[in-house]
Each structure stands twice: as C-alpha cells, then as structure tokens.
Amino acid sequence: MLSSTLSDFVALIFPRTCLACQQSLARGETHLCTACRTQLPYTDYHRLAPTDNPLARRFWGRVPMEYVLSYLRFLRRGRVQHLLHQLKYQGQREVGTALGQMYGQELASHGLGTDLDLILPVPLHRRKLAKRGYNQSDTFAEGLALSLNVPWSAEVLRRNSFTASQTRKSRAERWQNVAEVFEVAQPDAVRGKHVLVVDDVLTTGATLEACAIKVLDAGAAAVSVATIACAEH
Questions:
Q1: Could you tell me which CATH number the domain at 40-161+174-231 has?
Q2: What pLDDT sits at residue 98?
Q3: 219's torsion region: left (phi>0), alpha (psi -120 to 50) or beta?
C-alpha cells in the first residue's frame, strides 16, 4: 500500500506520459497508453510465411534472408513517425528499448528468435554518433535482446565512412551510397551463427542489404533483419 501511494505521489510530481501521444499514463501502463497500443499500425508480418511477406520480397534475388521483420508501418504524421522522431532527435532512448522489448515479446510468443545467435545494430558513423550521442538502432537491439534472451553487440559491425542522407535517393543510388561503407570488425563473432541485423526504418532495404552481405561474407551461417518500422514504396 505504501509503495503504491509513493508511486502515485511520484507520478503526480513527475507525470509519466505516453511515448506516442504524450498523454498521461494510467496506473499499470508503461511506455505506451492503452489507446496507442491498440491503435498502432502493426505489420504482423512475422505471422506470414516468408513467401507471403512483402518485405522479404524486397531482398529476393539480392541476398538470402531467413526472416525479414518489421514491427510497425511508418505513416507520415502518425504515431509511428512521432515515436521515431522522439527516438532519433529528442534524446528519448527509451522509445527504442521499449519497442524492442515489446516486439521481442511478440516474436517470442510466435516461436521466432529461438534460432538467433547474435543481434547487430546498423552502426552510425562516429561523426553522427558524436553529434546524436547514441545510436537509435542500439536501443532497439538492446530491447530485442532482453526479450529474446539473445546477445547483442555494437562492436562487431562497423561503419567506415560517412554517407550522405538516403532520404531523397533512389534504390540504386541508396545501394551505391552504402555498398562499401560497412565491415565486420570481429569475424569470429559471426562465423557459423545466425545473425539478426536491426535498424530503425526499412525503406528500400539498401542499408540492411549491405550489412547482411558483409555479415554473410564474414562467415555467418544465416542472416535475418528486423526494424522498428517499414515504409511503403
């Protein structure tokens, strides 16, 4: 009773708000309010066979993937865009960790993730990392790792050169922009393993494709990818 009263007092002085809509959270709610949890645009692609997964088709004929997964659909001016903005530009690291944990729980409940050996976030260049202070993909990887009980590392995959923004580039231009910027700094860490490469948003898939190829070239037995959100194209 005392702890409950104390929690209510703390919540009154420092109100907890939903990461998506900024409304106050009710008792028992964490990170997201019940309304947002209900209304977020989930993809549910993990429920589909690989041949029916529209995200998997983006990589067909390019790089073999075990799973291609994304938690949410990216809709402009919607809750997901707000969540990603909070994560990338407002210092709200807990957004990535929370969504990673939630998605990891969902994947685990459907039997996915039991064959994963290592989770690797897409790395930022050191200049961008220094400016932002953290890598948003690291937070998502950490959340997934907690729920799936799979180790993750920010040291294995490295970005060697700074690249221009991908936002206004075509798929071919995006691929050319990132084709040789990544390397596996610790090949022994991936050799013979099933590696999950994670990022914040999947658009054309060029960045994830470039990372996946490097991981396979370093000796990984299999590679999968997962993102917080995916954009239609």
A1: 3.40.50.2020
A2: 94
A3: left
Mean pLDDT per block of 10 residues along the chain (233 residues) reads 45 66 86 90 92 92 95 91 92 94 96 95 91 95 98 95 57 64 95 98 93 96 98 78
| Contact call for residues 194 and 120 (beta carbons, < 8 A) | no
For residue 2, what pLDDT is reported? Answer: 44
Tell me what pLDDT residue 180 has. Answer: 79
Longest dimension (CA), the chain: 60
Cα torsion angle, 131, 78, 230, 115, sign = positive
Position 12 scores a pLDDT of 43
Contact 199, 225 (CB under 8 A): yes
**Domain locations along the chain:** 1-39, 40-161+174-231
Of residues 88, 95, 89, the one with CA closest to residue 22: 95
CB of 58 within 8 A of CB of 218? no
Residue partners of 119: CB distance under 8 A and separation at least 6: 141, 144, 145, 148, 150, 151, 152, 153, 195, 196, 198
Q: Give the C-alpha separation, 5 to 197, whole Å.
A: 43
Token pair of 104, please?
Answer: 């990891």
Beta strands in the chain (DSSP E): 68-73, 118-121, 157-159, 182-184, 194-202, 222-230
